[in-house]
Write a structure and sequence with these properties.
alpha/beta, 7 helices, 3-stranded mixed sheet, Rossmann fold, single chain, 235 residues, 6-stranded mixed sheet
């Protein structure tokens, strides 16, 4: 008696085909699913979370987004990010989704480092010399005051703020009295330095201040213009 060869199961073919179709659908999901899901009212934007802002008002973020009632969390967020990136004071921004109906806006702000004169009064500037829409009546901020916008000085102040925040907090003003000199007011003491001074070099005044304080001496000026020295002129 001759044994019959096993016959292929037609159902197995369909299962394999269905599995392949499912794999292809999953691979293509990032392209086809958002447009379909965006049509569902369940995914309409009902809330916007704004994180990372201290100086920029959340209302300014909401107004710049210009979201209408039909906006979906599955809509392309890149146009919204570009819109917010053009807002003064914003360094970078990313938008993510929190399903079913929340957009999460993560903002990286430009940090103010000085007040400079402008047509409308004193205005905050960042390390790049960009003027910021900071309203001191709404946000408490204490910054050094410059006589004019000086990009080298604001860059120096930004470096001091990053490396020695406690020293930065004591600087009330900075100016360039001549091309070869800058001065800073540190707790009422005038600090003189060359224009190429670094934040690290400025911090050399700290141990000198501490030593003078131990001896009960009060400096009127601290001079950093001489290499590797801090010359104190006492009151």
């Amino acid at each position: 008696m001759t044994a019959r060869a096993p016959q292929p199961d037609p159902r197995r073919k369909w299962r394999v085909a269905a599995a392949l179709a499912a794999m292809i659908a999953m691979f293509l999901a990032p392209w086809w699913s958002p447009p379909l899901l965006a049509r569902l009212a369940f995914f309409r934007v009902r809330r916007v979370e704004v994180n990372g802002t201290h100086y920029i008002q959340a209302d300014d973020i909401y107004r710049r987004l210009r979201l209408d009632s039909a906006a979906s969390v599955w809509d392309d967020t890149r146009p919204l990010e570009r819109r917010l990136a053009s807002l003064a004071g914003v360094r970078a921004v990313t938008i993510s989704r929190k399903l079913p109906g929340t957009l999460v806006v993560q903002v990286s702000e430009r940090q103010p480092v000085a007040f400079v004169p402008s047509a409308s009064g004193l205005q905050a500037a960042d390390a790049d010399g960009q003027l910021l829409p900071l309203d001191p009546s709404r946000v408490a901020v204490d910054l050094p005051v410059l006589e004019r916008l000086d990009t080298a000085l604001v860059k120096l102040l930004a470096d001091v703020r990053a490396s020695s925040p406690s020293l930065f907090d004591r600087i009330s003003a900075a100016r360039r009295p001549s091309p070869g000199e800058i001065t800073l007011a540190v707790n009422g003491v005038i600090v003189r330095a060359k224009p190429i001074v670094t934040a690290s070099r400025l911090s050399d005044i700290i141990p000198v201040e501490q030593d003078l304080a131990r001896r009960g001496a009060h400096p009127a000026e601290l001079d950093l213009r001489y290499r590797d020295q801090v010359i104190a002129r006492l009151q």
